[in-house]
Amino acid sequence: MTSIRRYGRLYRLLFAQFLKSRMSYRTDFLVSLVFMLLWFLPSFFSVVVLFANIPSLAGWSLEELVFVYGFYMMAMAPNGLFFQNVWQLPTQIRNGGFIKYYFRPLNMLFYYMSEIIDINSLNGIPLGAGLMIWASIKLGIVWTATRIVGTLVLLASASLVVCAMMLAAASTAFWLTNSHSLLNLASRFRENARYPMTIFKGGFRFAFSVLVPIGFIAFYPSQLIIHPEGAGILPWLTPVAGLVSFGLACLVWTMGARKWSGTGT
Amino acid sequence: MRRKPYLGTIRNEIQSSLAYRGHFLFSLAGTVIYLIIAYFLWKAIFAASTGGNIGGVGFERAYLYVGISMSLAGIIQTSVDWSLSRLVTSGDIFRSLCRPQDLMATLFAESVGDGLVNCAVVGLPALVLSFALSGAGLPDLINVILFIPAVAIAFFLNFLIDFMTGLSVFALQSSRGVMNAKDSAILVLSGALVPLPFYPPGVRAVLEWLPFQALYNAPARILADGGAGLADALPFLAREAAWAVLFFILARILLSAGQHKLVVNGG
User: Fold this and answer.
1) d(Cα B118, Cα B123) in Å, to the nearest integer?
2) Which of residues 5-44 of B touch A (CB under 8 A)?
3) ipTM value
4) Cβ–Cβ contact A263 with B under 8 A
5) Is A265 among the domain residues?
6) Is A264 inside a domain boundary?
7) Cα dist. A153→A67, A243, B248 in Å?
């Protein structure tokens, strides 16, 4: 318990420091904020473009998919906020800079990830919430207390899946030295979490639910919120998917960090 | 300008990128999986359309556009924006500027080395798979021949866009926001995500004049639209080339302006 409190306090301190250093590049900070919004508009626009041509996708209407999209954006936010530093891992390992994380009496994963806190990623929360609210009004979803709590639990679980994918992909750098391609692969996988998993047939649906669990990032949890009756068993497993995948990713990280022998400099 | 040192840079880059063989395996795997996901997605989209036809385009051609764009992404993507911005923020750029080699030409030579390897290891297999999955027949020889300059110009144009994005670090000191914005702008405006024929006519008309379509849409159309030949491809190629020239001049101006603004902390 004391250690959780200690890390909480540490993170607050580091966060304040990080905010100060980011604010010293004020133009980039502001540009990033504006561009995040600009980024959202075109990628959302592509969904709208698609739906201008077809009435529904695998039985899912535009409103329902907007809901999934909103959920996806919110589930992505924590990963961007806390785990942005995964992108630097391949470089840090190649040039040996990673060695410094061994020398402090801190959890290495915590120490490493606390170095970059990407505040811009917070944009996804109001944007995603806006989409979810718009869609739920259109779909006539009533936000009871149970549904709100359930949604929060599902969002947390989905975020864990996203973080786990990125962490596991980055950690391969300990063995491969260059894990950039796997990180790109993982982030490409992520993007496809916005589509109904029902479009995949046979073995592929199994693969995207279990092996690379992108289905749990947005589609299955959204199914549970929009149509809890006909959802089947899989969506209920979202929290399990989150915990198990994050646990496994941490294991890969720890094994990698133990195994890594430095660059010799 | 003496060319020898740049050829050496290209060769070095090829060798050093071949040193990470695992990297290619994953790049290729990523592209293959993406092509499979796109296959199911577009199958579902066309299953929902009336008569298996959207805006006069059937599944085969739509999937070819997407598949070719995906393969192109593997070929033309450079990470010049990242490396340039890392050079500036770390201060290492002073070393590059002290050398008797031109900074832009050196970075371009490095990108060419990477691009050649990516083309052979990721791009070509992905192109073959796209044709196989689409169910369309093989392209005509003339389309294949015209596709090559289209890709070459697209590569150069993409390099220039990345280079200028990286240059923004001179003005902003940190350019993560601009880089991310550039990536997503290209994805949508170039027709890489959703092929341009699916856009509303008004939007499409605008996009066809912007430089971004030259990156993916133009080469994809040249290769996928069988039998179109030279007359159809020329306007695409001409527009691509015009943007490349314009951006080249702009990049040179920005580079010399940026160098005057550069501040490197002593160390």
Assistant:
1) 6
2) 20, 22-24, 26-27, 29-30, 33-34, 36-37, 40-41, 43-44
3) 0.78
4) no
5) no
6) no
7) 17, 12, 51
